[in-house]
Amino acid sequence: MAASPASAPAAGTDGAVLHYFNGRGLAEQIRFMLAATGVEWADRHLVKREQFQELKASGVLPWDQVPLLELDGERFTQSMAAVRHLARRAGLYGDGPSQAARCDIIADGIRDALGAFSGVPFAPDRDAALSAARDRMVGKYLPCLERMLRANDAVPAAVKEAAAALSAAEPSLAAVPPPVGASDGEAAGLPAAGSADAVFLVGGAVTFPDVTVTEVLCYIAELLPDVGATAGKQWPLVVAHQRAMLACGAMRKFFGSRHRHALGDAVYKAEVRAVLA
């Protein structure tokens, strides 16, 4: 069935519908944010050219591009516009204009970092693309993230020290949340402000860059395992940050659901090209 710009909400959702290809791409940041903010949604996958043509003809795509998020009776295109709307809607935009601007600065850099991975399924030389991604992560993004986490004075030094100590014992970035232990209890939605070992990028609580950077760090664990395996030795707060985010209830639920899409393969690549032909 062709995707409709006025999709009926699926049962068990909040009426939210996300139109995109059957893969991660530019929509995965939106999925991370929907999960983090507790919104139930339906994925409407574009797998045929006719579906995309219908969306364009309907006039709901200002730039004739997806993803398209339908939420609260409104439609949002451009992935970062949708991410920022979800952040404002859920109060994940910091405390005041200065922190909001800081969120934007960091989130835009995270979006640039994701570009090193989202294009890998379409790269003519996968090994070369991954080598370039490794250079960018090790040479720029991981050191910058570590520096930002250390510079955030809203997180007490003792908390940073405790978080770094845990990373020394467990230095690996993870591709998925850890198994739930018998003594873990009921996990919270997102890491709480004031947690003993939770570090944040902006202020003393979770903001939306904390959510979106989790995708980048999971990509590193999946596609650059040699970097991810020992990341905590050079960037301990980065590893601590991801550990806290993946352990929270919102991320566990997301990663255990159908909404967490697989790495792009040949089928995904062929579908995207057919839709855009």
Characteristic key phrases:
GST_superfamily, 2 domains, Thioredoxin-like_sf, Glutaredoxin, alpha+beta, 12 helices, 53% helix
Describe what this molecule looks like in 3D.
Helix content is 53%, strand content 6%. It is of the alpha+beta class. The chain has a four-stranded mixed β-sheet, with helices on one face. Helix 1 packs across helix 7, helix 1 packs across helix 11 and helix 4 (97-118) runs antiparallel to helix 5 (126-151). The longest helix is centred in the middle third of the chain and has 26 residues, at 126-151. The relative contact order is 0.16.
Question: Might you state the CATH topology name of the largest domain?
Answer: Glutathione S-transferase Yfyf (Class Pi), Chain A, domain 2
Order of helices and strands: EHEHEEHHHHHHHHHH
Query: CATH first level of the largest domain: which class?
Result: Mainly Alpha
Main sheet: which strands, in order across?
A: 2-1-3-4
Pick out the low-confidence regions.
none
How big is the Rg? Answer: 19 Å
Beta content comes to: 5-15%
